[in-house]
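Budget justification aside, the reviewers requested a transparent look at the raw inputs and outputs of the sequence design task funded under Objective 1. We therefore reproduce one unedited record. The lines immediately below are the structure tokens for a 139-residue chain.
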């Protein structure tokens, strides 16, 4: 049995969802075919959304944020929810610590980048640099 067939066999049925809290809160939008369809686009989008939410510091709300994002972007709901479970309270601290160390290595471990940032700090243009990173083309 292929992975796709196994996943499709283990997904909840419409009747089971109809009697759940999920249906009462989200209504008929939870039955959209886009949320349950197994295609390259929907699975990759669900994985991307779930991992993005998993690595944001929103420890108590990742499933809620993933579900809301899933309804907005119309990607695979089960894959997105499974991907957001990568970080849980037990392993969140080591994951965030490794991400911080990687970022620190990228900024301070590369000599040319450290020198460039020092020049930017001295020139007083660090704030505009970070604003430009957040909203390109708006300055």
């Amino acid at each position: 049995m292929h992975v796709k067939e196994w996943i499709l066999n283990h997904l909840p049925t419409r009747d089971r969802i109809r009697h759940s809290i999920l249906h009462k809160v989200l209504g008929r939008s939870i039955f959209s075919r886009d949320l349950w369809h197994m295609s390259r686009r929907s699975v990759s989008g669900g994985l991307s959304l779930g991992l993005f939410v998993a690595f944001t510091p929103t420890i108590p709300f990742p499933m809620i944020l993933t579900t809301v994002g899933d309804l907005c972007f119309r990607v695979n709901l089960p894959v997105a929810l499974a991907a957001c479970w990568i970080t849980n309270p037990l392993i969140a601290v080591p994951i965030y610590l490794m991400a911080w160390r990687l970022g620190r290595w990228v900024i301070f471990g590369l000599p040319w980048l450290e020198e460039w940032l020092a020049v930017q700090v001295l020139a007083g243009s660090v704030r505009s640099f970070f604003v430009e990173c957040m909203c390109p083309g708006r300055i």
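Residues 92-134 form one domain. The chain has ten helices and no strands. Computational costs for records of this kind are itemized in the attached budget.
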